[in-house]
Design goal:
Elements lengths: L1 H10 L25 E11 L5 E13 L3 E14 L2 E16 L5 E12 L6 E15 L3 E15 L7 E13 L4 E12 L2 E18 L4 E12 L8 E12 L1
Amino acid sequence: MLLLVSSLATAQEPPVLIQSLPPLIFDHPLPPPRLWTGGVEFGFNGSEGNSDNFRTRWGGNVKRETQDWIFKTDGIYSIANANSIRSENRGLLNSRFELLKPKSPWSLFFSNTLEADEFKAYDLRVAPHAGLGYTWLKNDTSLLKNRLGAGGSWELGGPNNDFMPEALVGLEIEHKLTGRSRIVSAFDYFPDFRAFHEYRTEAKVHYEVLIDPEWNLTLKLGILDRYDSTPEGKKPNDLDYFGVLLWKF
């Protein structure tokens, strides 16, 4: 009996004392969040032989977003020569400042577009607009937003330099397909307040896929279509399709 009790006593393991670990101490503090984000893009294509063609395209975008406002701007410039003759020379700059309302899908926006094209009837178009925006959906993977506003445009250096009052109806869609790719599209409709059968549209869609995470290099493939129902003797539609490398920062 004594042998059995002693064997049971020795079989019991001593209790283990669990001590809390000291808090982790970082020698280097975490970097603050970036105030500005954006990217720079570049692409070219060409041919030599029976026909000589060369086309380049530069672009960039910048964005800053806080709890109270969003500012974003993007621009492109493209130039092309065919058989030593200039065939394209155009630039487009879009900017928008948006005031946000806390815990509300509504926002107030102010936007402006500058468009220059050597082969248009005008030298420069300036188009400011303002209005309301409504965000239907915004999360880590998707964005769906509408804009409704008014403003106008001036076509400088052309046959009609008068101010043209316009309405603005806009739509933005973004969706992250995977951890490395996403699709972005936007559509803007500008009808003339004086005659709604006269209007302008701008539609764009592009696909981005990250190809080098170390350098933040992204392949960007897209289409940009601009239509003007009053082209003043020129073609009403301009369609650009492109493939460029985008470096994000």
